[in-house]
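Retro notes (design track)

What went well: tokenization of the new backbones is finally stable.
What didn't: we kept losing track of which sequence belonged to which structure.
Fix going forward: every design gets posted as structure first, then sequence, in one message. First example under the new rule, 292 residues:
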């Protein structure tokens, strides 16, 4: 795979169907090779992050969305383990607070955007408002939007408006120097079942299991439709989605890492170059120190 992003990227929803993307697709790559490669390019990732931080002009926002047990936390941990914490910000979004509901649905996510020169990671994101809130429209009532008083009020027009808000939000960020890439870790229902069972059987993983996970699993088909519709409506050249086969954790981590690297390379961050006048002063200061 010369450029892995070409295999899993979605930049237009015109013909997008989630069924066309497999949950297992490792090509000819072997697990041992992927792990070795992932370890090698951590140094390269660190260098790109240093360039991005020093340049202080662009930022990168990485969004992770997935069903429960798809491996979001593990992907973030393994791929970003070598990054300087000063240049990386991670936010894991839970259920909105009462204060969040006093504002529009994008407010708390706007507050969590990465500063210039930094990499931001959103573990779940503003897309929850067109995913879980679409599967469970009663949640929308907490927003107290004028004209919407019952679940039946959230019609096609409401969701189209919400997709449009997301597109405009991301386009605005792109115009102002924030590159956005969005990962959907595509895990199968059978693999999720095995991971839930593993959490139940391993005492060190029991804390990860929640009864709500089983309840939400009952809405699997509804969630798949919601993901398909959200990806189709919000995939653009500037802010693409990547549908990553996630049944093999090692491959998902490899693919995510490679795509992040490809994105940073395309952004071309560079260390600032000193003007001749400042360089002359730098040489004078260096000589002053050497002569002490």
């Amino acid at each position: 795979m010369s450029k892995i992003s070409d295999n899993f990227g979605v930049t237009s929803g015109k013909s997008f169907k989630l069924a066309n993307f497999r949950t297992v697709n490792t090509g000819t790559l072997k697990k041992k090779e992927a792990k070795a490669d992932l370890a090698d390019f951590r140094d390269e990732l660190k260098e790109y992050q240093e360039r991005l931080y020093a340049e202080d002009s662009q930022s990168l926002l990485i969004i992770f969305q997935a069903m429960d047990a798809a491996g979001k936390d593990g992907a973030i941990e393994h791929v970003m383990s070598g990054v300087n914490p000063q240049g990386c910000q991670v936010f894991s979004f839970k259920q909105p607070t009462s204060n969040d509901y006093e504002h529009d649905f994008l407010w708390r996510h706007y507050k969590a955007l990465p500063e210039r020169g930094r990499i931001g990671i959103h573990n779940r994101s503003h897309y929850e408002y067109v995913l879980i809130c679409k599967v469970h429209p009663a949640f929308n009532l907490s927003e107290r939007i004028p004209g919407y008083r019952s679940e039946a009020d959230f019609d096609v027009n409401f969701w189209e408006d919400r997709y449009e808000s997301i597109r405009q939000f991301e386009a605005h960020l792109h115009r102002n120097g924030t590159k956005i890439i969005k990962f959907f870790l595509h895990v199968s229902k059978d693999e999720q079942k095995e991971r839930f069972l593993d959490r139940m059987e391993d005492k060190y993983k029991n804390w990860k299991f929640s009864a709500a996970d089983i309840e939400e699993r009952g809405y699997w088909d509804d969630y798949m439709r919601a993901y398909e519709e959200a990806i189709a409506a919000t995939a653009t050249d500037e802010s693409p989605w990547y549908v990553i086969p996630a049944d093999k954790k090692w491959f998902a981590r490899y693919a995510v890492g490679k795509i992040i690297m490809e994105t940073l390379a395309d952004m071309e961050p560079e260390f600032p170059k000193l003007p001749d006048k400042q360089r002359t002063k730098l040489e004078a200061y260096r000589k002053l120190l050497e002569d002490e």
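Added context from the reviewer: The mean pLDDT is 94.
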